Amino acid sequence: MTVTLIAAIAENNALGKDNKMLWHLPDDFKRFKQITSGHYIIMGRKTFDSLPGILPNRTHVIITRQEDYKAEGCIVVNSLDAALAASPQDEEVFIIGGGEIYRQAINIADKLDLTRVHGIAPEADAFFPEIDTSRWKVAGKIFHPKDERHQFEFTFETYIKSY
């Protein structure tokens, strides 16, 4: 199994505030869909609640402490270990948030697929964990300027764990 953390984060690692994203970047959404389609996506309950609904062509695995939580068409578990055990062992799986789930998963992840949003240090209540550059190496970067559809510049960054 390859475990990939995928997130859009500000330069200060901000993820969101009040269970909402801090920006609207259509090309980031497009990339997220392209990368995660056909795969299992693991998330915390609050992240699931923030989605517009079930994301098509993906199997949703929701981690929650709530014993009686149900989400039709989703796998509901109570730990990251259970989420990984419920996912295919021979495929790439994606962890899509939120901050606490990223913190639990960063040390077991194999890859980070980040959209680094430039030029803002927003007020946030959820953050991506610090990336230890002695353990993670940049495998690729693609810069995207701001334009009529994107209020901010951003860079797609891929990190691979260096063992």
TrEMBL record:
Keywords: Kinase, NADP, One-carbon metabolism, Oxidoreductase, Transferase
GO MF annotation terms: dihydrofolate reductase activity; kinase activity; NADP+ binding
Any one GO BP annotation for this protein: folic acid metabolic process
Enzyme Commission code(s) on record: 1.5.1.3
Statement: the UniProt record of this protein carries the keyword Disulfide bond: no
EC class name: oxidoreductase
GO cellular component: cytosol
Catalytic activity entry: (6S)-5,6,7,8-tetrahydrofolate + NADP(+) = 7,8-dihydrofolate + NADPH + H(+)
Keyword Nucleus recorded: no
Function: Key enzyme in folate metabolism. Catalyzes an essential reaction for de novo glycine and purine synthesis, and for DNA precursor synthesis.
Entry's family note: Belongs to the dihydrofolate reductase family.
Protein name per the record: Dihydrofolate reductase
Species this chain originates from: Flavobacterium cyanobacteriorum
